[in-house]
Amino acid sequence: MENCQAVIFDFGQVLVRFEPSVMVAPFLDPADADFSLLCSVLFDRKYWDRLDDGTITHEEILFDVAGRVPARLLPAAALALDNWQKNLPEIEGMRELIGKIKKAGRKLYLLSNISRHFAEHSTDVPILRLFDGCVFSAEVGAVKPSREIFSLLCSRYGLDKSRVVFIDDSEKNVRGAGEFGIRAFRFTGNAADAETFLTDQKII
Asked: Following DSSP, what letter does each residue of 106-172 receive, concatenated?
């Protein structure tokens, strides 16, 4: 695929690790008896799926969280919810892989199911400063693996779907990309495997 225009990456569990304990630790002592409770409640998928599609606010989440955790945890909950994007460890080897993609002359784009809040604060995440453009689900009103969001990304950045590749950790997202006509690779946590795929495709 020597005529490849770009490589499109997912974000969480591909470029960075989403670890609730790491995201909460700056705001609540991990030795606190209720630390695990706050982590599990605050990062409940029932909130984050709605953040991804833009149908819930931080205020609504905190109102609901207030009924599930001790009141003394609410200040930490608010701080963690507003600042979690600053506490995301990069997955080993991915920054180096991005450097190789850029050196090969390919563009880099991000396609993520993620909140408006994250979109507004994405510059807090150093690795994203290396990207040429980003599409965030809550901002555009569509989520992966819908055809709509893949089409929107290609249209926004002038990409030929037959000349890009997509890397995501979700099987359904990889399948959705393939059904749309984008060659896709499922990431399982090992940057070396992604590098081998891109090398085999003659992208790097």
From this structure: -EEEEEE---HHHHHTGGGSGGGGG-SEEEEHHHHT--TT-HHHHHHHHHHHT--GGGEEEEES-HH
Q: Long-range contacts: 115-120, Cβ < 8 Å, 24+?
A: 115/48, 115/51, 115/52, 115/54, 116/51, 116/54, 117/51, 117/58, 117/82, 117/85, 118/85
Residue 61 tokens read as 């989440």
Tokens of 194: 């992604």
> Rounded distance, CA 48 to CA 183, Å?
27
Residue 156 identity: R
User: CA–CA distance from 99 to each of 60, 96, 141, 144, 198 (Å)?
Assistant: 40, 5, 31, 26, 13
What percentage of the chain has pLDDT greater than the value 70? 100
Neighbours of 53 (CB within 10 A): 14
Residue with tokens 């992604």: 194
The pLDDT tens digits of the residues spanning 104-116 come to: 999 999 999 999 9
Residue 36's pLDDT is 98
β-partners of residue 164 are 6
Helices 58-65 and 35-42, packing angle to 10 deg: 140
CA distance 65 to 72: 12
What is the rounded distance in angstroms from the CA atom of residue 141 to the CA atom of residue 52? Answer: 9
